[in-house]
Specification:
By secondary structure, this protein is of the alpha+beta class. Helix content is 36%, strand content 26%. It has 13 helices and 18 strands. The protein has helices spanning 10-15, 39-50, 83-90, 92-115, 133-150, 160-167, 186-199, 242-245, 268-273, 314-325, 369-384, 389-395, 405-423; strands at residues 7-8, 26-35, 55-58, 74-75, 123-129, 155-158, 175-183, 203-205, 210-215, 220-224, 227-236, 254-263, 280-283, 290-293, 299-306, 334-344, 351-355, 359-363. Helix 2 (39-50) links the parallel strand 2 and strand 3. The chain is globular and about 65 Å long. The chain binds flavin-adenine dinucleotide.
């Protein structure tokens, strides 16, 4: 087993460095300043620039440095809460509007990949694997509900035998195969969207951290270390890090560190035996295992979480999970291991909203942002362009505060998330 560093990101290593973009120097003006160069910010900037707005995007590091360039690349269906739960909580009409938008988020990814001919190994197929019999029963019920009430026919249940054949492992009692889901190389996607955004005449500054938002009489100033952007509107797209710029958002967003590994390329025999269907897989635990194979035939296996400190050896904590699911992978080395910060909310629903009249934000996709963050960016662009109706569908979802105030929030959130971890083993 290797000792890979937290920053040893396979996606970045396999693509190499992206194009260099200048740090902001001095004072500039724009219609809209987008802060954050992940899926949310890039999608907002692209849709605004395509509509003719003068857009400047500021990224504190490089494009895709955050969760968008480190994630599992899994495209999920729906939201982290079931439609039954959303109907009970928000009413049927609102739940249906959310479902329609979540479905659009998957279509949006595929449309962007096709429109800009993005080379990001996009594939259809996502399996949700039940980790025990109770989870299998829930999955059956939910899959049937989606079919009968939402007309969603792309997902079907598999029993234990079929699951074992399709996934090449017999650890699950049942699973749902969803051909509407899928997977892709997330950093390749983010970089291509950045290039499309620049072709649409937006400006991107990397290594440019926004330090504060200052409201002037008739405009907004986004202040950075080496300059400022005077703008009409700002879009806050910093996900887990939103609260550093807007402390009023701190009670609504928590950080969870999630871990990923990539093995060396698999031999032909292993490649065919392990996950033969080549879909992405996520299990039903609270602290889930999620995995898929890469285009260059590696197993990308992820799981475990920490809320406080970073492990010294990520591969060492992820490998036991991988070897439990695929004992045959004991013989292969982990070549890469890295981590990323997931922004989560109390409700596990994305949190979209406004800070005053000039700032919009979208964050907290709670581990399901590959498709939804791209949609979040698009909805903010629509709202800035005077069509806020679809943005409001998410903004109307009541956000809940994590308890504890500034001092005790982190220990309390850690205790709560650890409790969920314990539930996985009961
Ligand atoms: C390890 C991991 C695995 C995941 N797997 C999946 C998955 O398989 N499927 C799925 O649907 N979701 C997954 N997610 C979640 C998904 O990646 C995120 O929801 C999504 O990428 C969020 O995109 P974003 O643009 O909102 O945030 P980010 O991608 O985090 O982008 C925010 C950007 O803002 C920049 N920034 C922060 N502060 C400032 C500032 N002050 N000034 C300028 N720039 C700033 C950061 O550098 C960062 O680049 C995963 C997340 C992680 C971490």
């Amino acid at each position: 087993m290797n000792r890979a560093a937290a920053s040893d990101n396979y996606y970045r290593a396999s693509l190499g460095e992206g194009p260099e973009r200048r740090k902001l120097a001095g004072q500039i003006t724009a219609d809209v300043c987008v802060i954050g160069g992940g899926f949310t910010g890039l999608s907002a900037a692209l849709h605004l620039a395509n509509a003719g707005a003068r857009v400047v995007l500021l990224e504190g590091e490089t494009i895709g440095f955050g969760a968008s360039g480190r994630n599992g690349g899994q495209i999920h269906t729906g939201l982290r809460q079931s439609q039954q739960h959303l109907e009970r909580w928000l009413g049927e009409a609102h739940a249906r509007d959310l479902w329609t938008l979540a479905e659009e988020s998957k279509a949006l990814m595929r449309e962007l990949v096709a429109r800009y001919a993005i080379d990001c190994a996009l594939k259809d197929g996502l399996v949700i694997a039940a980790h025990d019999r109770a989870a299998a029963r829930e999955l059956v019920e939910e899959t049937e509900y989606l079919r009968s009430h939402y007309g969603y026919a792309a997902a079907r249940m598999m029993d234990a035998d079929e699951t074992a054949r399709v996934l090449g492992t017999n650890v699950y009692p049942a699973a749902r195969f969803d051909s509407g889901g899928g997977h892709l190389q997330p950093l390749a996607f983010a970089r291509a969207i950045a290039e499309a955004t620049e072709r649409a005449a937006a400006t991107i500054h990397e290594f440019t951290r926004a330090l504060s938002l200052e409201l002037e009489r008739d405009h907004l100033r986004v202040v950075c270390e080496s300059g400022a952007v005077e703008c009409d509107r700002a879009i806050l797209a910093c996900d887990a890090f939103s609260a550093a710029l807007a402390p009023e958002l701190a009670p609504y967003i928590a950080h969870v560190e999630s871990f990923m590994t990539a093995t060396e390329p698999l031999s032909d025999d292993l490649y065919n035996a392990v996950l033969p269907c080549d879909a992405a897989v996520a299990d039903t635990r609270h602290v889930l295992d999620y995995y898929r194979k890469s285009a260059d035939r590696r197993m990308l296996f992820a799981g475990r979480e920490t809320y406080w400190s970073m492990p010294r050896d990520i591969a060492r904590i992820v490998r036991p999970r991988m070897e439990h699911v695929y004992p045959a992978l004991k013989q292969v080395r982990s070549e890469y291991a890295w981590s990323g910060t997931v922004g989560i909310t109390v409700t596990r629903m994305p949190h979209l909203g406004r800070l005053g009249e000039r700032v919009l934000f979208a964050h907290g996709y709670s581990g399901q942002g590959v498709a939804l963050a791209n949609l979040g960016g698009k909805l903010m662009a629509e709202a800035v362009l005077g069509q806020p109706e679809r943005f409001e569908v998410f903004a109307r979802v009541p956000a809940k505060r994590f308890p504890g105030g500034t001092r005790f929030r982190k220990p309390l959130v850690t205790a709560a998330l650890t409790w969920y971890k314990v539930l996985d083993y009961l």
